[in-house]
Amino acid sequence: MSTRPTSSPVNRSTFDQFMMPTYAPGAVIPVRGSGSRVWDQADKEYIDLAGGIAVTALGHAHPDLVRALTEQAGKLWHLSNVLTNEPALQLARKLCELTFAEKVFFANSGAEANEAAFKLARRYAWEHFGPEKNELIAFENAFHGRTLFTVAVGGQAKYMEGFGPAPQGISHARYNDLASLEAKISDRTCAVVVEPLQGEGGVTPAEKSFLQGVRELCDRHNALMVFDEVQTGVGRTGYLYAYQYYGVTPDILTSAKGLGGGFPVGAMLTTSAIGQSFSVGSHGSTYGGNPLACAVAGAVLDIVAQPEVLAGVAQRHGLLRNGLQEIGQRYGIFSEVRGLGLLLGGAVTERWQGDAKAFMTAAMEEGVLTLVAGGNVVRFAPSLIIPEADLNEGLARFERAAAKVAGQA
């Protein structure tokens, strides 16, 4: 056996040969990107309406992010939590100044941020009300990550299959159904966990009255309200965080995805009073808050928090939604286009139930990257600053794909 790694070219079959089969990636392999366009190994161009699943909030290779990363790379990469660092402190201050938060915990992903949030909720209840107050309530069709705890809190049984037994003390109410939650919540409930807009669960926004009711029920039962804003945060809805759109302030909020613009980073935000329950040694992360991630995330926030950028999301929302509605009506493929800001989903009509991926596959062939949310929704999450010309071209390419799938090409 050779001890020297080969440097021969890689392709899609290399994935099957060497990587765990946890994904089924498409045949193309993008190798570079600029703004809202990427190019594959054959130099074919694609309009990116997927945004790395709502991650590349400012597109690919944004010069300010490249600058922040390369400048920090020449200074300091890692210290661990034995010491703090300037980029982490600066990012924490920005997040607190821009939101309700007074304290921040940094992690590397949305799942880690949620894991920290759920642990904090139980720890806070344990300290203030006793060990019996440990029950978590989440919602059906929710998605909170792939750790064992976050999968259990998520409301999709398929992600738990074969990984039991699940952590206990977790139940699920129906989303946008306040009576369902009211029937489950009690003084044993330590927290209610909710996505302001269910992403993986079908791009379904919460009703304002529902979230207001959740807040009231939490207050009545001394339960913490946890907002999972991993996908909806950092400008995705046209507000820096979706709770600001709804006018409902959570006790704990999690953020990731767009926060790093493509660089892995996660954050849990809360108040000083609640944050005190994470005392020294009670939780931690070796890489959480590392200087590279925090420098990039700080640059992302500096751009996204600008009022004109957030206003631009609302304008692009109208363009994308109208375009998708027209395509949906023309080819009879969407029963509804729903979502907030630049997180939109086209719910497929009965003819294509369970086969939304057919549109994603056809779109890729036409040179546009899209997503799905389950088997019945085609999902779109482009850059928050995607140029109007790219948005229009992406819609034109998606229409060609829709025509092919619908048999009208």
Automatic annotation (TrEMBL):
What the entry lists under Pfam families is as follows:
Aminotran_3
Q: Where does N(2)-acetyl-L-ornithine bind?
A: 146, 285
Swiss-Prot/TrEMBL cofactor(s): pyridoxal 5'-phosphate
Q: Which species is the source of this protein?
A: Hydrocarboniclastica marina
Q: Which family does it belong to?
A: Belongs to the class-III pyridoxal-phosphate-dependent aminotransferase family. ArgD subfamily.
Tell me a GO cellular component. cytoplasm
In the UniProt record, the gene name given for this protein reads: argD
Q: Return the cofactor note field.
A: Binds 1 pyridoxal phosphate per subunit.
What's this protein's name?
Acetylornithine aminotransferase
Work out whether the entry's keyword set contains Amino-acid biosynthesis: yes
Q: What is its main location?
A: cytoplasm
